[in-house]
Structure formats: C-alpha cells, structure tokens
Amino acid sequence: MDFLSIFTFVQTLLLLLLIACSVLVVRIYSGKSVRSKKYYPVAGTLFGLAVHWNRLHDYLGEVVKRRGTFRLLDVDHSEIYTTDVRIIEHILKTNFEKYPKGQHNHDIETELFGQGIFSVNGAKWRQQRKLASHEFSTRVLRDFSCKIFRKKAANLVTTVSEFCTASKNFDVHDLLMKFTLDSIFKVGFGVDLGSLEGSSRATSFIKAFDDSNALTFHRHIDPFWKLKRFLNLGSEASLKKNIEIIQDFVQKLITKKREQTEKRINFSDKEDILSRFLVESKKDPEMNDQYLRDIILNFMIAGKDTTGNTLSWFLYVLCRNPLIQEKLVQEINTVVGDQGNSATADEFLAAITDEVLEKMHYLHAALTETLRLFPAVPLDGRCADTDDILPDGYKLKKGDSVYYLAYAMGRNHEIWGEDAEDFRPERWLVDGSFKPESPFKFISFHAGPRICLGKDFAYRQMKIVSIALLHYFRFILADDERNKNVTYRTMMTLQIKEGLHLRAYARPI
C-alpha cells in the first residue's frame, strides 16, 4: 500500500469517527429538555464520569452537595442523581410499581445476575421474593446459618492467630472476603469451599467474581460495550471469560446437589438454601438448572460482598478510633461474662447465642454506623416506567433513571447533622438501646417492597465474627504504604481497593 492510499484510508477513518461522534452528541442532547426549568439541571453527560471513575462516589457526592438533585445525559435517556429522602421514598415505596429495575439496567447486569432477584421485575421477582421470604424466616435456616457462622468465625480466629504469633502484617480484607465466601457457600450450597484454608479452586472463582462485578459496573460509562460484546473484544472478552468460570463452578455444585437430593426420600432435614430451592423446583418446571443458578448466584453476591466489605470497613474505622474498639471489647466482656474464659474459640463462640447478640446494642450501633459511612451498595436506582413528577416538583420522562447515592447520603450534613462525616456509634443509641432510623434515610439495606430480606441474617453474621475477632485480638493499621490512602475499588459494591493491612495483638483471656 503506497503513502497516498494510507493517507486516504486515515482520512476516511477520521471522517467516520467524526460522523460517529457527531451522531452521539446529537443523540445525547436531543429531546432531553436541557434548558427547561421543569426538569432537573444538567451537570454534564454520563460519559464525563469516566474522568472521575476511580473516586466516583466522592465525586457524585460533591456535585449533589453543590447543586442538589441533578441530571446527567445519556444517549437515549437522562439519569437523575439524588440524596433527597422524599424522592427515595417516592420511587421505592409510594410509586413502587412505576419504578422497576428498567431495561437499561437489566441489559447491563443480565450476564452477571441473569434472572435472579436483583435483576428481574414482575412475576419472577414476586416468585423469588415470596420463596426467599419464607426460607429466610424458617428456624431451620436460621439455626443452620448461625452454626456455620460460628464454625467459620473460629477458623478465622485460628488464621489470625497464626499472623499474630508470627508478628506479621496481613490483609484482613482478603481474609474476611474468604470467610464470607466460605460461609455463604456452606449456607447456600451445603459445600465446604475451604478458601480460608487456601483452596486453589476458590482463588480463581473469587477473582472471576470480583472482576465480573467491576467490569459489569463499568458498562454504565462505556457507550460501546454492546459492540465490544458482539465482537468479543477488550473488557467484554474478559467479562465473558469470568462469567463462564463463575457459572461453570456453580453449575457443577447444582448438578452434584441435585444428584444427592434425588437419592433422598425425606427432605424435612434440608438446611442449605440450594437444597430448599431444589425441593421447590420439583413443583415448578420453569425452575431449571439455569434459573436455579441465577437465583443462588444472586444470594451469593449479597452474602459475600455485603458482609465481607462491611466487616473490612468496620475494622478500618475501629483502627482509626481505638477508644471505640476498646468500648466494644468492654461490651463483649460485660455481656458474655465468664463464658469468655472458654479454652477454645469453638467453645467461646458456642456461648454467643441469639440472646447474647440481642444485648450487643453498642456493637449493633457500630456496625450500623459503618454501613452509614460505607454502604455495601454505594449507588442504586430505578427506572421510570411512565412520565412522572417527583416530590420536589421536577418532572422526568419515561425511561429516565433515578439513582440514590447511599455513600453521599451518609456524609450529608442536612441528613445527619454537622458531624455526618464522623464515625459516632452513639448517634444510634437512646438510653443505651439501639434506635433505628427511617430506611429511606439509612438506605444501606434498601427500602420499600424490595428491602433486603437478609438484613437480620447479615447482622447476625457480622456480630458473630466481630465478637470473635475483638475478643481475641487488638487491631492496628499496619505500617504499610497501601494503608496511607485507604479507598474503594469502583464496582457495584464498596470494596476496599488493594486490601486492608493490619497487625493483630493477642488480648489476655
């Protein structure tokens, strides 16, 4: 090819790129009522978020603090971002049926979430919600899960003890994510994954799981993700490979569990969630292996990321607030009493009954305060199914998305007062007893008809492991470069970036 041909080819390519960009700009700004005062003020386009992607939640918080509820323009719709409690109640409760997940979000999340409860609407959502609500309310599952949490917490204590004895720094975030993964696999599938013990099969699964989360979330600012998926290029090729690893892993577990249940006559002793769903699938032919896989994966996403991340942030703020860490230890010693002198972690944790957990008001407040500042899902939203007028009088069009900023809300002075950015568990206590806030103000567990079914489940798990760790160890931040600027990895959940490196010291027992 001669120089002239190359020059002509480059000219043609640049022209096509210019035309594509022009079409994109026209589609972004046309039909969006940009200058109309009836609609929220525009603060840019969705693609502008790419510049601030690594600190997305702080950036959105800064914009909403300056401008109030605002709009970002996308190719075929507007996206509204808010911390207004009235708007959140409007979309999640008052007008629940008018604000489903939306096709835009469903398209983005479908590879990861499939037809699971986080992604679907209508009849499938109601079916899964009803079945899950029943299962989570059973005493069998509650007792089984608590037994597993205690056992896995004892394993975690053993692991931390080894670092403590060797006077070594360790990544507590990595340990806690493995702990929660082991726990949810046992409760969800009845399988001992053994990731805390260094199982190699768990390592690739965890990486695929976390990378899929991040890659899926990044689609929100990638206008070409569908084209890349079609051509199997770049981030979409990586996502496809990771999803295959996840689905293959879970499918093998379902197949094995189905074979086991086929040989059983009496299902009255079913404990893990998968066994319980398999029993229900016999009554519903639509609940095939793929549907079951989607359902269980959604529960696993909720069980692993939310509690693992929250416990990591919890230990981070306790290291930053050593007096609060000691106050929690005092509460543990007071409530548990002489039972805390048990010889082994297993014996000590066996004494942590539901009655003990109910008395841990300060611990409950400290975990809740952690979720206020570091919500497991920092950003979530819904899509308008029809034109609507929101409580502040502004309009939005059918197809517009409305996102509520849980991370920014926790730092909002108008919602939580001038000390909103301070870690202060006492804000949740009245005369020493925990006092909850409106779920539309404290949105960490969602609100309305889709409020998190596993809220109590998560609190029990977090309390058990917190009691175990704080009873045996005092934690400080390791003298590590990575700890000098602890921040998050931008993904669907608020995961600590590059881990949290601590040093543990044994407490006298």
Task: Report on the architecture of this protein.
- Heme binds at residue 452.
- By secondary structure, this protein is α+β, with helices and mostly antiparallel strands.
- The chain is built from 19 helices and 14 strands.
- The chain has helices at residues 3-29, 56-67, 85-94, 103-113, 122-136, 139-165, 172-189, 200-218, 225-231, 234-262, 273-281, 289-320, 322-336, 345-350, 354-358, 361-373, 406-409, 413-416, 455-472, and strands at 42-45, 70-73, 78-82, 170-171, 380-383, 388-389, 395-396, 401-404, 429-430, 433-434, 473-477, 488-489, 495-496, 501-506.
- The chain has a 5-stranded mixed sheet with strand order 1-2-3-8-5, sandwiched between helices. Strands 4-14-11 form a 3-stranded antiparallel sheet. Strands 6-7 form a two-stranded antiparallel sheet.
- A hairpin with a 5-residue loop joins strand 12 and strand 13.
- The chain is globular, with a radius of gyration of 24 Å.
Reconstruct the topology from this structure:
Elements: H1 3-29, E1 42-45, H2 56-67, E2 70-73, E3 78-82, H3 85-94, H4 103-113, H5 122-136, H6 139-165, E4 170-171, H7 172-189, H8 200-218, H9 225-231, H10 234-262, H11 273-281, H12 289-320, H13 322-336, H14 345-350, H15 354-358, H16 361-373, E5 380-383, E6 388-389, E7 395-396, E8 401-404, H17 406-409, H18 413-416, E9 429-430, E10 433-434, H19 455-472, E11 473-477, E12 488-489, E13 495-496, E14 501-506
Parallel strand pairs: 1-2, 3-8
Antiparallel strand pairs: 2-3, 4-14, 5-8, 6-7, 9-10, 11-14, 12-13
Helix pairs in contact: 4-8, 6-7, 6-19, 7-12, 8-10, 9-10, 10-11, 10-12, 12-16, 12-19
